[in-house]
Model the fold of this input.
Amino acid sequence: MKKMVRNLLLGTSLAGMALLTAAAQDRVEESSTGKSFETQTVFTHNGSQYAQKLTGVTVRKKLVFKVYAMAHYMQDPAAGSKEAALESILSDGKAKQITMVFVRDVDRQKIQDAYRDGFKENATAEDLKKMQPSVDQFVSFFSSDVKEDDQFVLHWLPGGVVIANVQGTEKPEIKDPLFARTLWSIWFGEDSIVRRNDLVSRMIP
Done:
């Protein structure tokens, strides 16, 4: 009887360890900040469900200071070269998601200024003029100072639909394909503000 109980307890313990291992494997850590992210996400909007897989993680630094850890997700990401991965991410048609977890406090004005600078650096003057209303609306979403561990989640859905969740509050959607591509170019364009190769590392065999 004692042996049976011991075996049962041992079996339960091993099962618990297996569950913990599986849970650990379902998350990936950004090593420099210690922030971890799920390897898969599901987002539902207007009755449509989008399953997305992690393509990579990185950190945003300003000078020597870490600002936020970042993860990127994509619907059905295809394996291939770095160039192919970047181009597919900057193309409309598949759902994509950026998740940012802040590791320091940031003033709202600095966040707004950073986004405005990002759009200017990744668009021509003509394109910036076309999407200025979308840029103004988007920047207005960031109306509060950010505290450590606050999150921003950005979604780019097929058709150029961008939905921002700022510090737990979902904002109205912006439908503007040019705006969506330019927004993603802040991190995935040639003048990326992060190590963009890290954000596609899981798409490269």
Q: What stands out?
A: The radius of gyration is 20 Å.
